[in-house]
Write a structure and sequence with these properties.
The complex is a heterodimer.
Chain A: H1 2-5, H2 12-29, H3 34-40, H4 49-63, H5 66-78, H6 89-94, H7 100-112, E1 114-116, H8 127-139, H9 148-158, H10 163-172, H11 178-198
Helix pairs in contact in A: 2-8, 4-11, 8-9, 10-11
Chain B: H1 3-18, H2 26-32, E1 37-39, H3 53-62
Classes of the chains: A mainly alpha, B mainly alpha.
Chain lengths: ~200, ~60
């Protein structure tokens, strides 16, 4: 994992950003395990929008079961034929999968030395994959940690343009309970990322 | 780094701190782990065709 190779130049705040991206990635890649839920139930949020969302996740995680969350995940993203939401950048930006936004992402991925893991068959512009890439680029999982200018370019090109809409949809989705809180956290975090990158 | 950009970076870090990014620390971050992406690992020094994971996946998918 990234921790061992963590470059000294990565600031504490940036490590914390990577943590948030990783939490979103792991929750959106599949339903969390019992152990994940236990860890989530142990977090502490403050009174910022991000902190409030974290508190909401904490409350739900303490009450729900992996089975319930995995059913929710299925209804939201897999469904019979199709889930309630389609969590891909290309779909949000163009209405279709495998469109130009995915091609542009693949170009940037190869430039940055990232590739899709062999056992994954979903397109790379899945929200969980993008959150994981962002975390890895921040702390240097794929080589050198990216400087803020490059992070900003990647964020604005592939995440900033649609992820807030997706997280807001997730927050309001019919099948959402645990994932409503993940949506709330994602939306709040995307606002913060947007504003913080304006300072770069 | 120039003085000005240092100040900007400090302002940004301060903003992030106040925005509550510190909510997810320690074990929660570890639990989140790694899921779908990995670093590309080309063979050192070799030029031309390389059978990377990406290529292998392509072959696997193309074979139906």
């Amino acid at each position: 994992m990234g921790e061992a190779r963590l470059a000294l130049s990565v600031s504490e705040e940036d490590v914390l950003r990577a943590n948030l991206y990783r939490l979103l990635a792991s929750s959106l890649c599949a339903g969390p395990s019992r152990r994940d839920l236990d860890v989530f139930a142990d977090m502490h949020g403050d009174d910022t929008p991000i902190g409030q969302a974290v508190s909401a996740i904490t409350r739900v995680a303490a009450k729900t079961s992996p089975e319930e969350v995995s059913r929710e995940y299925h209804d939201l993203f897999i469904g019979v034929g199709r889930g309630e939401l389609v969590p891909y950048g290309s779909y949000y930006l163009t209405g279709f999968l495998h469109e130009k936004p995915l091609a542009r992402l693949r170009n940037d991925m190869s430039r940055l030395g990232i590739e899709r893991s062999g056992d994954v068959s979903e397109p790379e512009d899945h929200i969980a994959a993008l959150c994981e890439m962002m975390a890895g680029l921040i702390v240097g999982d794929f080589g050198e940690a990216l400087d803020l200018d490059e992070q900003k370019r990647f964020f604005q090109a592939h995440i900033g343009s649609w992820a807030k809409h997706f997280f807001t949809d997730l927050e309001g989705a019919r099948s959402s309970v645990f994932y409503a809180c993940i949506g709330q956290l994602g939306a709040a975090f995307m606002d913060v990322e947007d504003q913080a990158f304006l300072m770069v | 780094m120039a003085k000005g950009s240092e100040r900007v970076a400090a302002g940004r870090r301060n903003f992030l701190k106040l925005a509550g990014v510190s909510a997810v620390t320690g074990t929660a971050a570890v639990a989140a782990g790694s899921v779908a992406a990995e670093a590309a690992e080309p063979v050192e020094g070799a030029a031309g065709y390389q059978e990377t994971e990406h290529v292998k996946t392509y072959y696997k998918l193309a074979a139906f």
